[in-house]
């Protein structure tokens, strides 16, 4: 069974390793490295057909260095993920997914937080040209576009942030709400043609600000948005760094109870989490999740969660 995973942080790990290698370390081998949850071999073993790779620039970096950090990660996407693995194919537009051969894996670039381009929309347009197909306006912090879930102010989108959403619409690019403040979320609902929560769970089951409450979930489904469940234990069980596959399935159950059986997907957050679901420690173990889901749902429904729902809700469809 194919799997589309809408969030991982392998690019950040590759960048950190490269910067350390300038001193006395070694570059990570994307095909084999055990330090990468989503290395090529693990994607193949787990049945991943399309993997999203996030560009994430930490908000603590000086503003005049953030663009460089983003470009370094994108360069590694081209040189290490695509360049070193001929069976990894860059998805530059959503139709490219249709042309993947049986033994190929699609690679999608995404942006997690507008910090990388600041208030320079020419830089954002350059990111589109480089292949970015999903843009999250914030990480947990506030920036020039909006407030994130970790900012106590909790403000919505700025004028700039609203302009970014409209540009995303024009480019058939997702606007990702996973790290947005609640007020920012509702601003996106008014503007976005292609909303996605690339890695979020249900707040009713785990009261964490990174999760979505029932009103938000219903709004996402009403607006044709996808919600992709995340594997981070802290977003599955409140105040815990442990979780099981049945714990994660409870979140899928809840999303389906709110009308989302055809709008639920997977956004693992592999390579961005420090603790794991039992028996779901890296991309090679996706079959464990599929086996568990098939005890609760039909094959058609499980195929929906794994990939078909995404195909039906990608921009331009």
From TrEMBL:
InterPro entries: Metal_Hydrolase, Pept_M19. Gene3D superfamilies: Metal-dependent hydrolases. It comes from Planococcus kocurii. This is Diguanylate cyclase. CDD domains: rDP_like.
């Amino acid at each position: 069974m194919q799997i589309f995973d809408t969030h991982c942080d392998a690019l950040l790990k590759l960048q950190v390793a490269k910067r350390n290698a300038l001193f006395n370390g070694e570059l990570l081998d994307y095909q084999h490295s055990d330090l990468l949850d989503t290395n090529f071999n693990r994607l193949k073993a787990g049945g991943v057909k399309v993997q999203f790779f996030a560009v994430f620039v930490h908000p603590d970096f000086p503003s005049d260095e953030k663009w460089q950090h983003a470009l370094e990660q994108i360069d590694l996407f081209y040189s290490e993920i695509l360049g070193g693995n001929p069976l990894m194919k860059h998805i530059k537009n959503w139709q490219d997914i249709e042309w993947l051969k049986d033994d190929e894996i699609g690679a999608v670039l995404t942006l997690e937080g507008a910090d990388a381009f600041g208030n320079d929309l020419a830089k954002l347009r350059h990111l589109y040209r480089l292949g970015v197909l999903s843009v999250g306006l914030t990480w947990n912090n506030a920036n020039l576009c909006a407030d994130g879930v970790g900012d106590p102010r909790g403000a919505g989108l700025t004028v700039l942030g609203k302009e970014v959403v409209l540009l995303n619409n024009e480019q058939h690019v997702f606007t990702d709400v996973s790290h947005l403040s609640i007020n920012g979320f509702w601003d996106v609902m008014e503007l976005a043609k292609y909303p996605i929560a690339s890695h979020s769970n249900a707040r009713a089951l785990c009261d964490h600000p990174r999760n979505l409450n029932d009103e938000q979930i219903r709004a996402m489904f009403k607006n044709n948005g996808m919600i992709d469940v995340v594997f981070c234990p802290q977003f599955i069980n409140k105040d815990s760094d442990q979780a099981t596959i049945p714990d994660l399935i409870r979140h899928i159950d809840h999303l389906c109870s709110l009308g989302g059986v055809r709008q639920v997907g997977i956004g693992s957050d592999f390579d961005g989490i420090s603790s794991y679901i039992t028996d779901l420690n890296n991309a090679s173990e996706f079959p464990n999740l599929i086996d568990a889901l098939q005890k609760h749902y039909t094959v058609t429904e499980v195929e929906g969660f794994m990939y078909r729902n995404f195909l039906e809700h990608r921009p331009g469809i």
